[in-house]
Predict the structure.
Amino acid sequence: MYRSAGVAMAWNVFRFCTVLRGLGSIMILLVLAIVGVTYYAVVLCNYGPALLAGGATTLAALAVLLLFHFLLAMLLWSYFAVVFTNPGSVPPNWNLNFDAEMGETAPLTSSEFSSQMNSQQSVALSNTGNPRVRYCRKCNQLKPPRCHHCSVCGRCILKMDHHCVWVVNCVGALNYKYFLLFLFYTFLQTMLVTLSLLPHFIAFFSDVDIPGSPAALATTFLTFVLNLAFSLSVLGFMIMHISLVSANTTTIEAYEKKTTPHWMYDLGRKRNFAQVFGNDRRYWFIPAYSEEDLTRMPALQGLDYPVRADFDGQEL
């Protein structure tokens, strides 16, 4: 009986993950469709024609259009960076022999790796071993610190935060910054659209004659509602991730870790922020890292994370 229930649950999860994988290009097309409708309403129906009005109206329309196109470019750049960037996979022949002081690893030979797998698997599956030593039964491999298995992608993801349907990808160590920038520019863009279309939305409920075709008016109304809804939802999501970055934790870790004031990866807000966005301020607001940051900050590669100096291995 219990076996049947377990099999049924596993089958349901498998079907759910299969559906998510199948969404793929559909979700990307949906995002592009929303962007297209918004572009049509803001540029072609309202502020594009306003450029010909002259005077202050032209200047206001020009300012809105310039800011709109800049935020749209940054939004799409960040979005496709999340979509097409590998969130981070466990390297073949990954070594669990951490240097106690440097936190570094050295490559293993095939025989050494097999030996370590046999000796560490039992430790990784127990509750008494090193909490940073874990083993994935699905991938049949050892897992680096902060690594989790994604059932949708079918592999282990370095510093996995969650699997995002909107970007058709996992959000992990190598694309988490890009995801945050996508949220940031989406919020700014949707707020700009909401505020710029607010006068047109209010006009729907007044006795003033509104110029434009019925299709253009309906598109403007729909665009305002959609962007208002997205701006509010993205704001809440963004606030949540700001708190996660400030504590140097992920969505999964926030639910999994025990309630303790001493999270071992919490190095202070400044260093926590740098582990996601890097130290080079010129790259903070673009979906890229400087070569210097990639070279000097191992945390950006997703395999090696420094811990608190006062961390006690028993505090988890």
Helices lie at 2-50, 56-84, 110-124, 176-203, 214-246, 251-256, 269-277, 291-296. The mean pLDDT is 82. The CA atoms of residues 190 and 227 lie 5 Å apart.
